Amino acid sequence: MRIGKITENALKRSVLKQINTVFKKKTSAAVGTDCAFSEEKRTFSTIVPATLQVSDAAYYAVVKAVNGLVSQGVRPDSFTSSVLLPVDAEEGMVKKAVADALEAAEACGVIYAGGHTEVTGSVNRPVITVAATGTVDTDTKEPLFAGKGKAGQSLVVTKWAGLEGTAMLAREKYVDLTTRYPAPFIDDAKGFKNFLFVGEEMEIVQSLGACAVHDLSNGGIFAGLWEMAGRSGTGLRVDLKSIPLRQETVEICEFFEVNPYQLLSGGALLIATDNPEQLVSLLDQKGIPSAIIGQLTDGNDKVIINADETRFLESPQADEILKVLG
Predict the structure, then answer these.
(1) Number of other residues whose CB lies within 10 A of the CB of residue 104
(2) CB atoms < 10 A from the CB of 203, how many?
(3) pLDDT tens track for 249-300
(4) CA distance linking residue 269 with residue 287, whole number of Å
């Protein structure tokens, strides 16, 4: 099997098919969705990103888990973590992981409820798993988890694609990057990590009653578009040049020869909405950049337009960051 997330077909065959067979009448996990609900409307989101060699992996793990809830209209309250360390690990690794998790907890407004830490010969690098929990108010409508986009709706992206991967690469490959680019330029890219929590924009999105929201992550915006269309049962038509990218992302991806549209994109939301101009305007009033990039369409064709070139979107590939940090 390839490195990174398993393919969509393998996920359907070996994971979701078994889950859905056992829990026929319950709302559970699905492709492109990072959280699921119990009968009591409790919800959970789990993420394991720390197979990457990044020094602040626990921070990314917590934010990503919390965003998985927030983006579906769930109010997060706490998280737990599991940290597996290799036999040559030192206590400083534990202290750093906890400090990073606490930093993320403060950024997201959630409680660090505890977890498990173990040294084991089963791993050769730290592996961090975070599970975030939250609640859905029973007197409100169903969370966005149950919503799907519809043909004819516009697609809006908040912030920028490739945000998360850019921050990681800037920090982990700082010395290499500063051989070509000015240090302040790369410092700015490192700071993208502070833009990853999506709580503020989700308040605006929910106020307009968006039909479907996908927090972008592994595989970048291309994976997110594929998953949004698949879950909605539609095709899509997207203008590549409308997808927002920071210049730092463009330059760093060029340096490492990776595709910014297939790079970790935590911190950005993909939204299907009937009110794209109003949504973009309200986000802009809060200082949150966003852009209308296309729309969902009838049928199954997933079309990407780049000037005079038109092509079909491919199924999600392994995230580009694995070429550098995998």
Answers:
(1) 26
(2) 12
(3) 999 999 999 999 999 999 999 999 999 999 999 999 999 999 999 999 999 9
(4) 15
